[in-house]
């Protein structure tokens, strides 16, 4: 492919309700899209960095800066490029997996659209629908009634798995209450690094609730601490933030720091790296699932397709557009009896509504070759 230009499009997308985790509250998402124009057509990518560096060190202004200063110039240097070349070309630049991943995503979309191959076909999807789970934030008013109301609405909508966000002071009791009211629903919790090794005995109290997993209880760097916790509690430990690459995934498995991995393509530098981690886990019989980063329909399309790969045996954070947005940037993704349909069109298989994008755009920068 020959790149003609990149467009960095930054939008403000209001959330249908505030999303509160152990690291903060979000009222709207600061969305960064990357549109590439090439000699074979156009491609879209969605960068999953957040407004502030709270989930990971990367944040939207940082992603934009590193894209403009270092990443886009490097991918535009060769006369021709394929999506498969991007990771190696960008390896000398440290960090910024989300910014790197969005370049690869946009180029792969252009490439696949041109060859008539869907995201799912390209990566080896084996199913045409995937089960849908939903991540439930900590209530803005700290009230159990609010949590119960929200969970109830998702169960009624058909979600087949519920994930509760927890933090010190909001953990055992809310989980107990949701388990009491929904004795059979597949349930899991996510701490986003909010605990220390001193909390292992405390978190062992979750063992009685028959949870699918506990996600990222300790600091990102604390692989050993997770291995210690995994030995002391019966709830399976799942890692999210810790797994920033194939190599960290391999170390976590070798050290038995987790029994399950949440693969977020943006966090590991893109969908190709996500596929490598999937393959490793499949070979080692470690179940994986696809996490979410409040994606619009653009990122959601790709995540749904990845979730249809054979190793994704745990329900992902694959909710419908309306879970986060009243107006999506694509035709809305909707639940069909608890399942989402894997897009079948070429590339991401979605059409971006450019009018909606334009109406929500706060800044647009064009980088030409
Ligand atoms: O830890 O999984 C997480 C959202 C933003 C940042 C981190 C996380 C999340 C979620 C939302 O849990 C998942 C989704 O997009 O449905
Ligand atoms: Mg998580």
Topology summary:
Elements: E1 3-21, E2 24-38, E3 41-47, H1 60-76, H2 86-90, H3 97-115, H4 119-123, E4 129-131, E5 133-136, H5 144-157, E6 161-165, H6 172-181, E7 187-190, H7 200-203, E8 214-215, H8 223-232, E9 237-239, H9 246-254, E10 260-263, H10 271-283, E11 288-290, H11 297-306, E12 339-341, H12 354-360, E13 361-368
Parallel strand pairs: 5-6, 6-7, 7-8, 8-9, 9-10, 10-11
Antiparallel strand pairs: 1-2, 1-13, 2-3, 4-12
Helix pairs in contact: 1-3, 5-6
The chain binds 2-succinylbenzoate and magnesium ion (MG).
The site of magnesium ion has 7 residues, from loops.
Fold and architecture overview:
By secondary structure, this protein is of the alpha/beta class. The mean pLDDT is 98. Helix content is 33%, strand content 22%. It folds into 2 domains: 3-116 and 354-368, Enolase-like, domain 1 (2-Layer Sandwich), CATH 3.30.390.10; 120-341, Alpha-Beta Barrel (TIM Barrel). It has helices at 60-76, 86-90, 97-115, 119-123, 144-157, 172-181, 200-203, 223-232, 246-254, 271-283, 297-306, 354-360, and strands spanning 3-21, 24-38, 41-47, 129-131, 133-136, 161-165, 187-190, 214-215, 237-239, 260-263, 288-290, 339-341, 361-368. The two termini are 13 Å apart. The chain contains 12 helices and 13 strands. The longest helix has 19 residues, at 97-115. A 7-stranded parallel sheet has the order 5-6-7-8-9-10-11. Strand 5, helix 5 and strand 6 form a beta-alpha-beta unit. Residues 55, 135, 190, 192, 240, 291-294, 317, 319 line the site of 2-succinylbenzoate.
